[in-house]
Amino acid sequence: MKIKFDRLYHSLQSLSFLCWLMLEGNNITILPDSVGKLKELVRLDLRKNKISILPNSIGNLKELTELNLSYNYLFKRSLALTFLFFLLIISTRDYIILL
Prior knowledge:
By secondary structure, this protein is mainly beta. Helices cover 9% and strands 15% of the residues. It is built from one helix and five strands; from the N terminus they run αβββββ.
């Protein structure tokens, strides 16, 4: 099921206790800043979208341990990821970065 951006933006604001979010293959181009409000998020799967940059608010996801960004259009690693101390695995298109 494809998700429209405006629906995603509003939905994320009300899911503060969500632990796992899978948004694979939805042609998402921009991840809304409201993703940073998901304080309990442990796994975030954004595979097969069209995301080119991550919002700085992703640095608020202090419980995040797994982030899958495979098959997106990321140009550079977000500095906000350096604040995610529990992040163990970042999956990108052709390789996995273990932190």
